[in-house]
Amino acid sequence: MRRNHLTIAAASCVAAMALTPAIASAKPTITISGSTSVAPLTGKLLPKYLAKGQAGYNKAKFVIYQGGSDIGVADVAAGRSVLGESSRDPKATDPGGLVWNKIARDAICLITNSDNPVSNLTAAQVTAIFTGSTTNWSSALGGSTKTGPISLVVRTAASGTQDAFAKLFGVSTVASSAAQKASNGLIQQSVKSDPNAIGYVSEAFTSGTNVAKYKGVSCTLINAKSNAYPAVRNFWYITKGAPTTESARFIDWVKTSPAAKTIIASGWVPLS
After folding, report:
1. Beta partners for 63?
2. Among candidate residues 156, 151, 161, 165, the one with its CA nearest the CA of residue 115
3. Dihedrals phi, psi of 90, to nearest 5 degrees
4. Alpha-carbon Rg of the chain, whole angstroms?
5. Across the chain, how many H-helices and E-strands are there?
6. Which residues of the chain have pLDDT under 50?
7. Is the CB of residue 87 less than 8 Å from the CB of residue 184?
8. How many CB atoms are located within 10 Å of the residue 93 CB?
9. What is the DSSP letter of 108?
10. For the structural domain made of 4-106+234-267, what CATH number should be given?
11. Which residues are within 8 A (CB) of 246 and not within 5 positions of it... i.e. 6 or more apart?
């Protein structure tokens, strides 16, 4: 569960930072860790932010890791990371002294294999499937053409997506038979490779899968932005106490810059 390097969008961000070797060693390092849902957004934001170097923005080197929202929270609280990424809201059990900065919103989609074109699932059907009371596609409805056993794919307990799924879809406990995955990408891969699989992912990870409607509403960026889709959660950057100079500069840019808003709007839901 300990942190893994970001391997999707942030890879280009790390490469961009490597282009400044002459002064990189003199810069403070801002370590970011946590949510595998927020990480792709951060990976798109940072190159644009660092490109503002001539205006005084390029004052720090950023290193991005993943591991899940709970990892990000724990890392920041323990001082292992400067910024934590979370795709779940704060909990009463979180360590004290943390500052939560909301940066965007994101839809959670229900996905099945492309050979199993489930069209729509109700709240009752989702509960029955993920709690294990419905175990076969022949009785799952939703437009499924399958008749075999349902393969459940869910996130690990450290995941903010898991926490948000439980709250937004009303499934507090998933079946013990479910395969637990440590990232959105691993769920996406599992569902793409298993004709009987069903899982849930951030909207940015739906490519190559069948995306089922939930309560009759398609899980699309347009519907998330209009509040028509009912399963949308918050994205956060977390600091221990008030953000320091360089992390505060980055967070402020993310929350106020038109360029950052354009990036967020390209695949997520801006706050305004």
Report:
1. 31
2. 151
3. -60, 150
4. 19
5. 10, 11
6. 1-2, 6-25, 54
7. no
8. 6
9. E
10. 3.40.190.10
11. 28, 30, 59, 60
How distant, in Å, are the alpha carbons of 2, 36, 91, 117, 192 from that of 263? Answer: 29, 18, 28, 31, 27
Residues 166-221 pLDDT 10s: 999 999 899 999 999 999 999 999 999 999 999 999 999 999 999 999 999 999 99
Q: Does residue 45 contact residue 263 with C-beta atoms inside 8 Å?
A: yes
Query: What CATH architecture applies to the domain 107-225?
Result: 3-Layer(aba) Sandwich (3.40)
- Residue 254's CB: how many other CB atoms inside 10 A? 24
Residue type (1 letter), 139 = S
Q: Distance between alpha carbon 179 and the CA centroid of its chain, in Å?
A: 18
Residue 130 in contact with residue 154, Cβ under 8 Å? yes
The pTM assigned to this predicted structure is 0.87
DSSP code per residue over 112-164: E-TTS---EE-HHHHHHHHHTS--BGGGT-TT----SB-EEEEE-TT-HHHHH
Domain boundaries, given as residue ranges, for the chain: 4-106+234-267, 107-225
Contact, 46 vs 251, CB < 8 A? no
**pLDDT value at position 147?**
80
- CA angle, 56 then 57 then 59, to 5°: 90
Q: How many CB atoms lie within 10 A of CB 210?
A: 20
**In CATH terms, are 4-106+234-267 and 107-225 the same topology?**
yes
Which amino acid makes up residue 105? R
DSSP state, 44? H
Structural tokens at position 268? 């997520």
With beta carbons less than 8 A apart as the criterion, state whether 41 and 235 touch.
yes
